[in-house]
Design a protein that fits this description.
about 350 residues, 8 strands, hydrolase activity
């Protein structure tokens, strides 16, 4: 890679900004035990068994590192953050979260996870912020839990680990949850999951079902379904956050607009209705993008150009992708100090409603 920095990153704002990592995975022992039970029973479908089965059972170095990192919200995680120069992390229940569980199991597991995460934030308020988990299988309970997690526990958003056993937030059944997020003024983080059972077969045969490709396909599909279903017309103040430089969506803006306009005019698909705005405008105005797992200069600068500098912010994707050198790569991006401060710090403070003083922002 070009642009190798002279010194390694350190915490404390010495660069002129603190680094807030905005897509950092975490899990409770309760949910990983439930996942292991499902794996042993052969439950959850091919995507779950392929991805979670690997990370929960493999003895290879990377899955072992991931397991240790996921279940830690203390000394190990903080040591890794310090070594990489990460001042603050936005933690969220890792994929697939509760979204492979029925409501009977998911409601309680989500509530317990929120309690545990809030306790971790209380122990380390300058280092951690948390996003709330809910069980989407029980929408009234999900609304109540999101309100509790934000209003009483102090969590700062909602994590959605993409499809809900093959269903998407484009379905109006789930819109009361989005309405609650908008009313609470907290963002929704749409995190990848493996493709649903109807999509995954060919990808899995080729080894392309996970983060290498399948995640991008599944999450970009979910995002587009939300847009074309009218979610952002119905909830114009809703803030959606997606990772991995927008799951390739910024590259397609012109084509989305052109093709959607033609489909509306031809009435080819009953599901494609007129929208108040262009697809590109929803992506540019309603969606914030993080760099999780995507540290290269050219794609980051391209994404900033396509969606706006004020809609792209830093993330690491710990513990799945923990490479301290990638922090250095982003420190060396061709931006002014003011732009880097926004990229690493200020946009995240604004989107997640963080207390700048409490987290030591410069």
């Amino acid at each position: 890679m070009e642009n190798t920095p002279v010194t390694s990153p350190t915490t404390g704002g010495h660069a002129g900004y603190i680094r807030i990592a905005t897509e950092e995975a975490w899990a409770t022992r309760e949910i990983t035990d439930e996942w292991r039970r499902m794996i042993d029973a052969g439950e959850g479908g091919p995507g779950f068994l392929g991805m979670v089965g690997h990370y929960m059972t493999s003895d290879a170095d990377r899955p072992r590192f991931v397991r240790a990192g996921l279940e830690d919200a203390g000394e190990l995680r903080l040591a890794h953050m310090d070594a990489a120069g990460i001042d603050h992390a936005v933690l969220a229940l890792t994929a697939p979260g509760t979204q492979v569980l029925d409501a009977a199991r998911g409601v309680g597991i989500a509530a317990n996870a929120n309690d545990e995460l809030a306790a971790a934030v209380e122990r380390h308020p300058s280092r951690f912020t948390g996003l709330a988990a809910v069980s989407f299988e029980n929408v009234p309970a999900a609304v109540a839990e999101l309100e509790r997690a934000v209003s009483k526990l102090g969590l700062r958003g909602l994590i959605v680990n993409s499809h809900i056993r093959g269903r998407y937030l484009s379905d109006p059944e789930f819109w009361p949850i989005l309405e609650a997020a908008e009313a609470l003024d907290v963002p929704v983080y749409l995190h990848p999951n493996t493709p649903n059972d109807a999509m995954i077969g060919t990808m899995q045969e080729a080894g392309l079902d996970g983060a290498v490709f399948g995640f991008q396909v599944e999450t970009s599909l979910h995002t587009l379904k939300m847009i074309t279903s009218g979610v952002f017309d119905r909830f114009p103040r809703l803030r959606l956050v997606i990772g991995h430089l927008g799951e390739a969506l910024p590259f397609w803006l012109y084509r989305f607009d052109y093709m959607h306009q033609g489909m509306v005019a031809s009435r080819r698909y009953p599901s494609i209705k007129p929208l108040e705005r262009k697809i590109s405008e929803y992506i540019q105005d309603c969606i914030w993008i993080t760099t999780s797992g995507m540290p290269a200069r050219e794609p980051i600068m391209f994404t900033r150009k396509m969606v706006g500098d004020d809609h792209v912010m830093y993330a690491m994707d710990y513990p799945y992708q923990y490479v301290p050198a990638e922090v250095e790569m982003q420190d060396e991006l061709p931006m002014s100090l003011t732009e880097k401060k926004a990229f690493f710090q200020d946009i995240a403070i604004d989107v997640f409603g963080l207390d700048a003083k409490a987290i030591g922002a410069v």
